[in-house]
Amino acid sequence: MILAGDTVRIAKDAEELMRDAAEVFATEASDVAGVGGLFTVALAGGSTPHGLYTLLAGEPAFRARVPWTRIHFFWGDERHVPPHHPESNYRLAHETMLSRVGVPEDHIHRIRTELPDAAAAADAYEETLRELAAPRRPRPLFDLVLLGMGSDGHTASLFPGTAGLRSTTRLVVAHWVERLGSHRITLTVSALSSAVHVVFLVSGVDKAATLRDVLMAEAPTEALPASLIRPIRGGRLTWLVDQDAARLLEPPHLRGISP
Ligand code: 6PG
C-alpha cells in the first residue's frame, strides 16, 4: 500500500539503487550525528544490501561522510544460525562493512543466536530493544530501518502465515518458517514500524509482480507482510527499487508519489 508522501525512486539498475541507498544512509546518519545525536539503524538481511554495505565501507565519498562512531547498529531479523555462519545476516554486515570502519563493539547489537534456542535469542533481543527504547522516548526506536522484500511479499522474517505477524505486544519474536524448514528471529511489524524512516530495497525482475501487488494493495494485508510496515507518527516510507523490479508499475501506482 502506498500513500501520498511516500517515495518510490526507480534506479536504472541495481548499482544505482545501492548508490541511492548509500546516499540516504550517509545523509541521515550525518544529519542526526551532526547535532550530537546517536543514530540508530536496523540493518536488512538477505543478499540485496550486500552492495550497499560494501559501498558505504568501501567508497571514500560515502565512508568519509558516515559518523561511524555515533551509530548503533541493529538487525531487523536473523537466521537461527551461529554468528559467523555463511547464512548469518550479522556476518554479512560485519564482513562487508562493520569490521572495516571502526564501529565501537558496544554499538553493534546483533541477535544472539548462540543462545539455547530461537525463543531465547528473541527474548534477549526484546530486552535489548526495550532498553534502547526507554531513553529515546518519544522518538521511535530507529532513525532508519532498512528492509528487503521476498518474492512472496515477506520482509525481515515476517513471512505470510507465520505466527509473529500478528504480535502486538512483542518487539521481537521467534517463529518456525514452514517454507524454509527453519526458525527465524524477527522484529515484529510494530518494531519495524517504530522508525523515523523506513527504506525498502527491492531489486530484480523476480520481485516485480510482488512489488506491484504491495504498492497497489488497497489496504495492508498479512498475505503481503511488506505491506504491513508503516512508520509511526508521520515517519517516512521510501521504496528504492531498480527498473527490473519496477517493470510492472504503472502511473496510477505512483500518482502523488515523489520520485
Ligand atoms: C533475510 C531478510 C529477508 C530478505 C528478503 C529479500 O534474512 O533473508 O531479512 O527479508 O530481505 O528475503 O532477500 P534478497 O535480498 O536476498 O532478495
Folded structure, characterized:
With 259 residues, the chain is an alpha/beta fold. It has one domain: Rossmann fold, CATH 3.40.50. The chain is built from eight helices and nine strands. The chain has helices spanning 14-34, 50-58, 60-63, 89-96, 118-136, 189-193, 208-216, 251-254; strands spanning 7-11, 39-43, 71-75, 77-79, 144-147, 172-177, 182-187, 197-202, 236-242. The chain has a six-stranded parallel beta sheet with strand order 1-9-8-5-2-3, with helices on one face. The protein has a three-stranded antiparallel beta sheet with strand order 4-7-6. Strand 8 (197-202), helix 7 and strand 9 form a beta-alpha-beta unit. Helix 1 packs across helix 2 (50-58). The longest helix is centred in the N-terminal third of the chain and has 21 residues, at 14-34. The mean pLDDT is 95. The chain binds 6-phosphogluconic acid. Residues 44-48, 76-77, 89, 148-150, 154-157 line the site of 6-phosphogluconic acid.
